[in-house]
Amino acid sequence: MNAQCGSTDSWPAPSGAGSIKGTPIQARGESYDAGEKKCISDVRRTFCLFVTFDLLFIILLWIIELNVNGGIQKQLEREVLHYDYRASFFDIFLLAVFRFATLILAYAVCKLRHWWAIALTSAVSCAFLIIKVILSKLLSQGAFGYLLPIISFVLTWIETWLLDFKVLPQEAEDENRYLSIMDATERAPLMHPGPLSDGQFYSPPESVADSDEELDDKHDPEKGLIQQVT
């Protein structure tokens, strides 16, 4: 292949339409090749950022809840050290940590291209939250008794929607497009013409005698006129 590239470089500039047509395809293939070499795709990076937002938002709401209900230190002792499933929000925080660790490990570190990890986190989160709302006393603890479970539930399903309808289909589409372009570049024939012959650029040499007579006619207009009359 290098020998072929070297031979094509030695050809003249008007090398035919094949090289012009192959240039856009080759450029698109190289752009997709560069995209494949990236550590993580843009849509997957957006998903990982949203997973991080999920964890940080739940932490923020939990800290606000601790501060509102009598101070952070006192509420931490009551909800963490004296944990009660029916009255504590600590498990909702642990659930967010579980989602974050599982999804980042699966889709950012391992670059998984399957939905089983998000299905696991969604199933565990939804089942836990539904059971907690039914059995616990959170609804009697004010606004945060409604807010934390509902927001955790909604964020879980947004993550599922992002991965299943955005990340995996977009990456599969980009990969198929990349493979089709690379296949087209490999199968495209080289449309370079053969070496140009000398006859295509042949011009007959000028006659020396004719050129001398033309110069004499220019310098002696009377002589040229006499020749025309005779």
Query: Could you estimate the helical fraction of the residues in percent?
Result: over 70%
Work out the helix count. Answer: 9
Strand content: under 5%
How big is the Rg? 39 Å
Q: Uncertain spans, ≥5 residues at pLDDT below 50?
A: 1-25
Secondary structure class reads: mainly alpha
Rounded mean pLDDT is 76
Major sheet details: none
Q: Give the SSE string.
A: HHHHHHHHH
Net shape: elongated
Distance between the termini: 70 Å
The count of strands amounts to: 0
Short account of what is shown:
By secondary structure, this protein is mainly alpha-helical. It is built from 9 helices and no strands.
Please describe the structure with a list of short key phrases separated by commas or semicolons:
230 residues, mainly alpha, 9 helices, disordered N terminus
Overview of this structure, please?
With 230 residues, the chain is mainly alpha-helical. Helices cover 75% and strands 0% of the residues. The chain is built from nine helices and no strands. Helix 3 (42-68) packs antiparallel against helix 7 (143-187), helix 6 runs antiparallel to helix 7 and helix 8 (208-219) packs across helix 9 (221-229). The longest helix is centred in the last third of the chain and has 45 residues, at 143-187. Residues 1-25 have low confidence and may be disordered.
